[in-house]
Amino acid sequence: MTELRADARRNREELLDVARQVIREQGVDASLRDIARRAGVGIATLYRHFPTRDDLIAAIIGEGIQRLNARAAELAETKPPGEAFEEWLSYMASRIGPYHGLPGAIHDALTTDGSPLGILCADMMDVGDRLLTRAQTDGVIRPDVTWPDIFTAVAAISAIATQSGPDTSTRILDVYLDGLRTNP
Amino acid sequence: MTELRADARRNREELLDVARQVIREQGVDASLRDIARRAGVGIATLYRHFPTRDDLIAAIIGEGIQRLNARAAELAETKPPGEAFEEWLSYMASRIGPYHGLPGAIHDALTTDGSPLGILCADMMDVGDRLLTRAQTDGVIRPDVTWPDIFTAVAAISAIATQSGPDTSTRILDVYLDGLRTNP
DNA sequence: ACCTGAACACCGTTCAAGT
DNA sequence: ACCTGAACACCGTTCAAGT
């Protein structure tokens, strides 16, 4: 894993660069053949580096997910629980939404064991769960809603961004967040 | 349209029966070739009866959409505006959700002119808009939310049903509906 | 170690040829 | 009028053969 022959390393980088761009444009169901072609590499080479589509997606969004986790820690320290939780959800939506089909892929990955994408997102789920619990303990978020439900909801709502635009997605998320708050 | 040769009529019925089942099982992206094969008909025959996938989907869910519109009229007469609106949204979600990919297809169809599915759903959009306006006039639903937004939200949330099950979808919809209500 | 293209089994869509 | 399969240009995935 860590030691790669020079040519292999170059191919891997090129594949990732191309895939990042193509997937941002066409979504997570983009043609793998097309990605290999644009990277100037045989289709089998793509499969050697990324045995499944899941592996490729995980490699592409890995960094973004880590940033998401870091942001959670940051918000937890600087903002009150309710604000931290809501801001983090909005941030998550803005990062995940633009990749067409990604929320669905993450959801599938989380319930498929051994999925690299699932493993990658497991930490994110823990982080979210903790932020939620803090906000619920603080009494600002309804105590009867679970984190898996909220994650599923925010994922589905963020997916709207690729169809109806980020503004629509944001407005809908705001209404949902309002429903999440305890009535004073 | 109305006059079909006996064999053509039989083929059309068989295609619709098979398509209804296959699409319920596999979603709106199911293989058209597979549907034709199972219907015991050449692939070109499917295309002759339904020139686009859109036509086929519209033909399949047409009856369901009309039932949806009828239900709206019924609810408007028998229930107070807020209840009528919310019940209709839940009913819509329960009808649309189970078909994987249908909410997305409807959304695309509504913004593509000439789409048979879009034409079919246009009435439904009017009906929903009227129910919303009544509920807003009655003061029970937030006045600052538009019908297209609500439709998009409910469509996205109902789509959850095929991934996480109808119960999850229902719970999430409840939270969203809560966010839609005016705070007393 | 790594790369490659051919191979296989699928698609969606169209079109000439059949009845 | 209507039906049909072949044809074309694509997929995802695997595997034997190359360096």
Condensed summary:
The structure is a homodimer of 184-residue chains. The first copy, chain A, is an all-alpha fold and 184 residues long.
In CATH terms, the superfamily of the largest domain in chain A is Tetracycline Repressor, domain 2
Portion of residues within helices of chain A: over 70%
CATH class designation of the largest domain in chain A: Mainly Alpha
Number of helices of chain A: 10
- Overall mean pLDDT of chain A stands at 96
- Topology, number of strands of chain A: 0
Number of domains of chain A: 2
Please give the radius of gyration of chain A in angstroms: 18 Å
What is the helix/strand order of chain A?
HHHHHHHHHH
By oligomeric state, this entry counts as: homodimer
**Low-confidence runs of at least 5 consecutive residues of chain A:** none
CATH topology of the largest domain in chain A: Tetracycline Repressor, domain 2
Instruction: Please tell me the CATH architecture of the largest domain in chain A by its name.
Output: Orthogonal Bundle
The amount of beta strand of chain A, in percent, is: under 5%
Q: Specify the biggest β-sheet of chain A.
A: none
User: What is the CA–CA distance across the termini of chain A?
Assistant: 54 Å
Inertia-based shape of chain A: elongated
Structural class of chain A: mainly alpha
